[in-house]
Structures are given as C-alpha cells and as structure tokens.
Design a protein that fits this description.
Topoisomerase_IB, DNA-binding, DNA Topoisomerase I, domain 2, DNA binding, DNA_topo_DNA_db_N_dom2, single chain
DNA sequence: ATACATACTTAGCAGCCACCGC
DNA sequence: GCGGTGGCTGCTAAGTATGTAT
C-alpha cells in the first residue's frame, strides 16, 4: 500500500478530498478507503514464531490484592528537593474570595452583580498569577510551599429513631448502630436498580453481616440468615419523609443552612500554594456507603468503609503548620512531597487503592497540566503523517508484533479507541484497544468490521464500519484458529509496548494523546465550516453540532432521561397542534373569501392533508387536557383554601368550568362535521389571519428544530468532550471571531477552569 | 518482562436549583 | 406565581500512564 492510500483514511488524514462532507455523516459509518493492492506476499503468515498462540489464554487474574497496613504506607519518593518558598502575597486574594462569596448571596440585581464582576476582574488583573505568561520550568516539582487545613470528615452516624427498624420475617430487628448504618445504606437505595441487582444484594448482605458480627450481632437475638427475608421498607419510608421535610423548608431556611455550611467549609475549600490562595477540589472525605460499581461489577454493593483521620496521609510544606486532627484523633502520616499534586490521600477498602484530595480544576496546577496536555496533542500534528505512513506500511510487516502494533494504532487513530489496559477479575469486564477479544470484533467481507464491546464505564461501543483492506486482512489473521471467543485479539500487545513505540516519534506521546488530538482536530475542522452569519442562537446551534461530532467520535454517551420519550411525544403533539391551528386559520380565510382558493390553490393544500382521524385525535387531546386542567385547578385551589381556612369552592364551580370545555368540544365536533370554523373576533380580515399563519409557521419551524436537536442529543453527552478533549482555545477563538459571548459556551466553572485559554489567544489562533 | 504501586485524567450520573412557559 | 425541566455542579468510579522492585 502506498502513502497516498494511507492518507485516504477518511476522517482527517490530510483533510483534502472530503472537507465539505459534514462530519456527522462520515462519522456514523466511517469509511476507510483502501487503495491497497493485495499482492501475494501480503498474505504470508506473519506469525514469526510458534509461540504465537502461547499468550492466547484469556485474561490474567487478580491484581491489587496486595494489602498493607494503613498505618505504614510506603515511604515517599526520594526527590524531596524543596525549593525556597516564594514570598507570600498578602490579603488581596483574600478579599477577592470574599467578594465572590458575597456575590452568591444576592440574587436578581443584575447591575450590582455586573459591577461586582467588573471590580473583581480589575483585581484579578492586578494580582492574579498568570502562569501561562511565564516560562515553564521544571514540572516534576509541583510546588514550593503548600499549606492547607486538612480535610472535612463526614458527620458521625446518627442512629434512627427507635421506632424505625429493619424487619426480618416480619419481626423488628434491633441493630447496633454500626450495622444499622449499613442497613440504612441499602434501604436508601431500595427503589433504585442497585437494590434489584443480585450481585449488589449479595455483596451488601455479606458485608452487612460482617459488620453485624463485628459489633456483637443483633441486640434482640434475631438471627439474620437470608437477604430475602429482610424488609427495609420502614427505613426507606423514613428516609423519604426526611427528604420531603428538607424540601419543605422555606427558601430562607435553606439559604441559612447553606450559608452556615459554606462558612464551615471555607477553611478547607482553599489552600495556599506557593503563597497564592487556590481552590481545593474534593476536600471532603468520601462518606461510607455501598460501593456502586458501574456495569456488571463483581464488587458492587460492598461496603465502602468510613475513613478515619488515622487513615489519612497529609501532604504539605515542611514549614506549614499541621492542621489539627479531629478531637481525639491523629493523622496517619504527614508527608512533604513536592513532586506530587495531592494534599491528602487515603487507602480505600474496595480495591485497596488510593483516593486523593487534590486541587480544583481552576487551580494553576491543573491549568498547567491541562495546557500541557493540549500542547502535546498539538505537537502530534507534526508527527501524525509519519506515524500514519509507518503504520500503514507495517500493516504488512513480516513480524507479528509489528503488525499488531500497526493495527492497534490504526484503530486508536481512526476510531478513537482507548488504550485498553489489562483488568483484573474483580472489575467489570470492559475493554479498550489492546484488550479487545475475539468476540468483540465481527468481520464481514470484503472489509466491514462490527465492533461491539463495553468500554470505559461499561458504555457500549457499537460501530459497523469499513476499514482499510489490509487492516481487515490482519484482523482475520488475528482471529484465526485456534483463537476463539475469550482470546485476546492483540495477544502480543499491551499499552506500555504501544506507548514505548509511540515515544520514538515524539516524547510523551501515548495512546490517549490520539484521542485529544483527533477530538480537537475534528472540532477545528468543523468550526472552520461554520459561516459567520445569522443570530447568536443559530451560531450556537452550529457550535453544538460541531461539539456533537466530537462527542460521537469519542463515544460519549448518556442514558436517555426517564421522561425523554414522553417529552418527545409531547413536543411532537404540540407541533401537530400548531399545524392544525394553521389549517383552521386557512379554513377561516376561505370562509371570508372563497375566491382565494382558485387564486392560490397551493396555499390551501394543507387543508386537505389533515385527515379527519388526525383532526379528531387532536380535538380529543386538547379537550382531555383541558378537562384535566380544570380538575387540577379545582383541587389545588381548594387545597389552598383549606390551608388558609377559607370556604371551599363548591362542586358546581368545577362543573361550570367543565361546561365551558364541553362547549368547546361541541364546537370542535361541529367543525369536524362541517369543515367550517367558528370565526374568532381577531380574525377580522384575510390579512390578519395570514399574519397569524405566518406566526404559526415560525413557531412550527423553531419547535421542529428544537425537537430534532433534542432527539439527536438525547444519547450523546457533549460535556465530556468539551471539558476534556476539545482545546478550549478553539472555543475562545470561535467566540471572538463570531461575536458569541463566551458565557454561552462555557459555564462559570468552565470559564474558571479555562481562564488560561480565554486570556491567552487572539482570533487567529489555530489548534 | 512482569507485577505492583502510585498518581493523575476522564467519565457518567444524581440531585439541586434557576429559569421558562403556562 | 407555579410546577416542571433542563443545565450545572459535585461526586466518585474507572480509566491511562509511569516508576520501581523483583
């Protein structure tokens, strides 16, 4: 195969021949052209040694089983060169933060808010640390000084009132509080899917019994043996009532509570990094709960235990004051490691892995990492041609390992697959590129491939695509007997081999960089296609469409919301009703002037398009809706009156309302029979009605577009790509060039996260 | 090379709350 | 003004990647 052939991989290899094809089309069924000439040696068996099948065995088991006492975590890394702390700037940043908080309190007053924002901006300009304007030094050292106040622990368990209990075989069970807490975790989920999942039930019940045993068993000698004999409903109901009560609080009370909480959290929400005040991300320690693994997770439902101060390692400057541990406790360890970003960590008990407390997304450290990530992806631009040329050539390599690498990189590049590291048996069975198995890929000659597997978060990846002919051939070889379902497709590959290979092209190049690169490249290309015209709303729609192609490329999905089908139906009913109203208007016009039918027959065609059945359906829908409305109104009104101790509305009132509806119904029925519309007073002239028709058409138009947009977005999640894959500078440039306010594209938090991008590019910047 | 340990990014979802159409 | 709805945010699970010891 030639280099030219390689560059025909459709999506964006040298975006020449199909620049004008909307990506949305090519993405659904991505086609890969192939000019490969199948010469005989291509088919030579590339297995260059007979250990070929040796690694075929399914996946390896067990990892992370290593246990280590929490009290003695591994020693910190050696690199503890602590550069001298920079001078600390004074209270300026303090003031700023308070201003932000105050802002939250006051609603409405737009001007005031604007003013304040303006003020803040000024302050920002004075003393904000603009790291992106500085030279970038050593990045193995993350900070010079770090001070913080530790972490917030969840409140201790509050036992339930004594009349709320778990029931076993119908008998109340007295649980020690520690066990009651665990039972409560389950009870709270009673109506969720988790509670119906047998694995979840089993894992929960085991751990629950364990905790019960640890605490001396039940207090009233009920022996719990089977999950199915437990009744959590009383507990569940109690939680529901509590939730309801919380909701019932006045907005004043809610506000009060919120303010108190914010005040308490203030000290933990911020830390001091190199003398600057920066936000901490997850300063709250995760509360105990039942582990909610995604997909078919073997450990789902297990108890995630409470974390104590003794479990926590704090990381801060040597000279920083050590925050006091909660009363009667001490910290597990204090560390001074400035080669890492985390402020605190602990080991969790589900996988025995670590959880970290780190800085917020708007912090300088995170911003710098983010910036670096996108710069690395941009660097790939100057290597991508060589990489594609090489993998295209290596698709025919005599060496099996090379062929596998070539195909893998092809898949990662073209279909944006993840690297696909090995997983242990106690995790959900999900895969990425390197861990693809026989059954995940179906080959349909001549060159169609169906991918069907569960990826990260057990999100299904399903695509039927055409691939390069040589890729197809290779996949056929990778699936040859004795391989069978359960066997690895890339039996000689893992991400580290792949990454090592990739680093030959460019330092720091790894599989994931391709996702960033292709996502941002796609976005750039899509934005380039948008004409600079129309309203802001129209431009936004186009921006979102571009965003959507990226999300589809990266397979970012979301579950359709519960009410989605209903919402769609409602919306299309509305549109249908608008159409119907239009027809009525046109009928009315004819009633005013019959002669028009001959003059403009086209205009009145729609009248015939509406069938009697459809019309009757619409009538019924409207009437039903109105009846319901009356009834609801009646009930509501009386509820209110009851509450205020006023006299209730008599039934006759309801009847009166309903009679009005009945009249309308008669009118509709008559209209259906005769085809004659009762002329409204506003329909005094043909012109007026025509104007109304125009309005209706406008509404139909917008409603239809909105509906379509909603439908297309129902399964696609735009946020993930916007937050993680699309270089934010692209969006900034788009806004600048197209006069779209950045607020329309980035929420407040995103604007803070991407401050570096917003302030650093002009409108000529390109990815 | 493998196995494990560590640290950092990416991911979807629940719940809340502001806003919008009636 | 009211109730539903969609957008945001917080949360934490689930990935990727690299360093270190064996």
């Amino acid at each position: 195969m030639t280099i030219a052939a390689a560059s025909k991989v459709k999506r964006d290899l040298s975006s020449d021949d199909d620049d004008d094809v909307p990506l949305s089309q090519t993405l659904r069924k991505r086609k890969i052209d192939s000019a490969s000439s199948a010469s005989s040696h291509d088919d030579a068996d590339p297995y260059d040694s007979d250990e070929a099948i040796s690694k075929i065995s399914k996946k390896k088991k067990t990892k992370r089983i290593k246990t280590e006492p929490l009290s003695s975590p591994p020693s910190p890394k050696k690199k503890t060169t602590t550069p001298k702390p920079k001078k600390i700037k004074k209270e300026n940043s303090d003031v700023k933060v308070k201003a932000t908080k105050k802002k939250k309190e006051q609603k409405k007053k737009q001007e005031e808010e604007d003013q304040e924002a303006e003020d803040q901006k000024l302050k920002d300009e004075e003393d904000e640390y603009k790291w992106w304007e500085k030279e970038n030094e050593d990045d193995t050292i993350k900070w010079a000084t770090l001070k913080h106040n530790g972490v917030i622990f969840p409140p201790p368990y509050q036992p339930l009132p004594s009349h709320i209990k778990l029931y076993y075989d119908g008998n109340p069970v007295d649980l020690p509080p520690q066990a009651e807490e665990v039972a409560g975790f389950f009870a709270a989920l009673l109506e969720s899917d988790h509670a119906k999942n047998p694995v979840f039930q089993k894992n929960f019940f085991n751990d629950f019994l364990q905790v019960l045993k640890e605490n001396g068993g039940t207090l009233n000698n009920v022996e719990l043996k089977e999950f199915s004999r437990c009744d959590f409903t009383k507990m569940f109901d109690y939680f529901q009532v509590q939730k309801e009560q919380k909701k019932q609080l006045t907005s004043q009370e809610k506000k009060q509570i919120r303010l108190e909480r914010e005040k308490f959290e203030e000290d933990y929400k911020f830390c001091e990094l190199d003398g600057r005040k920066e936000q901490v991300g997850n300063f709250k320690v995760e509360p105990p709960d039942l582990f909610r693994g995604r997909g078919a997770h073997p450990k789902t439902g297990k108890l995630k235990r409470r974390v104590n101060p003794e479990d926590i390692v704090l990381n801060l400057s040597k000279d920083a004051p050590i925050p006091p541990a909660p009363e009667g406790h001490k910290w597990g360890e204090i560390r001074h490691d400035n080669t890492v970003q985390w402020l605190a960590m602990w080991r969790e008990n589900i996988f025995n892995s670590f959880k970290y407390v780190r800085l917020a997304a708007n912090s300088s450290l995170k911003g710098q990492s983010d910036f670096k990530k996108f710069e690395k992806a941009r660097q790939l631009k100057s290597h991508i041609d060589a990489i594609r040329r090489d993998y295209t050539r290596n698709l025919k390599s005599k060496v099996m390992l090379e062929r596998q690498k070539a195909v893998a990189i092809y898949l990662i590049d073209v279909f944006a697959l993840r690297a696909g590291g090995e997983k242990s048996e106690d995790e959900a069975d999900t895969v990425g590129c390197c861990s693809l198995r026989y059954e995940h890929v179906t080959l349909k000659p001549p060159n169609t491939v169906i991918f069907d597997f569960l990826g990260k978060d057990s999100i299904r990846f399903y695509q039927e695509v055409e691939v390069d002919k040589q890729v197809f051939k290779n996949l056929t070889i990778f699936k040859r007997p004795p391989k069978q379902p359960g066997h690895q497709l890339f039996d000689r590959l893992d991400p580290s081999i792949l990454n090592k290979y990739l680093q030959n092209y460019m330092p720091g190049l790894t599989a994931k960089v391709f996702r960033t690169y292709n996502a941002s490249k796609t976005m750039q290309d899509q934005l380039d296609l948008i004409p600079n015209k129309g309203s802001v709303a129209e431009k936004l729609l186009k921006y979102n469409a571009a965003n959507r192609t990226v999300a589809i490329l990266c397979n970012h999905q979301r579950t359709v919301t519960k009410g989605h089908a209903q919402t769609v139906e409602k919306a299309s009913n509305r549109i249908q009703e608008l159409e119907w109203q239009k027809v009525r208007c046109k009928r009315a016009i004819l009633q005013l002037d019959k002669g028009l039918l001959k003059k403009e027959p086209k205009y009145f065609e729609e009248i015939e398009d509406l069938t009697k059945e459809d019309e009757a359906t619409i009538h019924k829908r409207i009437i039903d809706r109105e009846i319901e409305k009356c009834q609801r109104k009646f009930v509501r009104e009386n509820d209110k009156r009851k509450f205020e101790k006023e006299e209730l509305l008599p039934e006759t009132q309801l009847k009166e309302w309903l009679e009005k509806v009945e009249e309308k119904k008669q009118e509709f029925e008559n209209e259906l029979k005769t085809g004659e519309v009762e002329l409204k007073s506003t329909w005094s002239s043909v012109e007026k009605i025509k104007a109304q028709v125009e309005k209706l058409e406008q509404r139909i138009q917008t409603s239809s577009i909105q509906l379509k947009d909603k439908e297309e977005n129902s399964q696609v999640s735009l946020g993930t790509s916007k937050i993680n894959y699309i270089d934010p500078r692209l969006s900034v440039v788009f806004c600048k060039k197209f006069d779209v306010p950045i607020e329309k594209i980035f929420t407040k938090t995103l604007r803070e996260k991407f401050k570096w991008a917003i302030e650093s590019v002009d409108e000529n910047w390109r990815f």
